Amino acid sequence: MKTVVTVFGATGQQGGSVVRALLEQPDKFQVRAVTRNPTSPKSLDLEAAGCQLVQAELAQTESLIPILQGADCCFLVTLPPVEMVLEEAVKDEYQYGMNVANACMAVGLPHLIFTTLPNCEEISGAPVPWSDSKAKITEYFKKKELPLTSITLPDFYENYLSVLKPKKVEDGVYNMVIPTGEQAYSLINITYLGEAVRHIITHRDEYLNKNLTLVTDRLTVGEIADIMNKHLAPFGKTVGNAKFTLDQTREKYKAIAGIETLVNWYKFILAGPADPQYEEYKDIELGRRLMPSAKSFDEWIEEHKEVLAAALC
């Protein structure tokens, strides 16, 4: 019999990766792709690819029970509602987690896989609501003794084409403005997260009631700038490292909504060894083993150099 997997966020980065990986083995897996709108183009594409579309709202526990009934595993990613003020949105996100927990207990779900983040406020003293909320959801799942595998994810390579891309100084000249100094931090090629999730599903007993930190590269911001500079040279673009401090970043970008939260995230990264998972963040071997198709950041930038060059305008 096929393993039935309910996948939340099936049209997003994380859930989409899981869907693709499971559909590569259609003889082994039946994918239930959760959507709020089963008639949307993205939903119909999933159906055409072989998914069973199921409609549900994380805000409504009663809608979650039917889509989890009879499933062998659920992959869950939670996001705060984007239309709300962040502080209020993360309260809703936490409620989503509780709703899923209640639905899982109601149906006796055998395995829940949840992508989580650290509790930055506990570690560095500076709150990062969109990270802290996921840590609190994880603790709630544990308190309810759900059959859980949690996956801690670092920064995505893919974000360096958008929100984390270098900032323009002048024509052809750009700077990285990430204020982490010489502290190396962890990265993941999120496109291939699904490979790890597929492995975890098929080796449930090995990973049950464990947290895995998946890392596919670990670099300083200066090393990131050097890699970009190397691959962007043919496009007439250079990338340096502004070497901003936390305070300089806060002051320079104070007009940007959410800058304080972003600065707090980098304060957490600088806290480094204060994080109980610090050694796990340094472990590239696990991520590369569970995600064999993942690239190093250097390889990934080489593959996406045209896209990055076009994004720098």
From TrEMBL:
* Keyword flag NADP: yes
Check the record and name the Gene3D superfamilies matching this protein.
Answer: NAD(P)-binding Rossmann-like Domain, UDP-galactose 4-epimerase, domain 1
Q: Which SUPFAM superfamilies match?
A: NAD(P)-binding Rossmann-fold domains
Q: Where is the NmrA-like domain?
A: 1-243
Give the transmembrane ranges. none
Q: Which InterPro entries match?
A: NAD(P)-bd_dom_sf, NmrA-like, NmrA-like_oxidored
> Which cellular components does GO assign to this protein?
nucleus
Identify this protein by name: NmrA-like family domain-containing protein 1
What the record says about family reads: Belongs to the NmrA-type oxidoreductase family.
Q: Which UniProt keywords apply?
A: NADP
One Pfam family name is: NmrA
Organism annotation: Patiria miniata (Bat star)
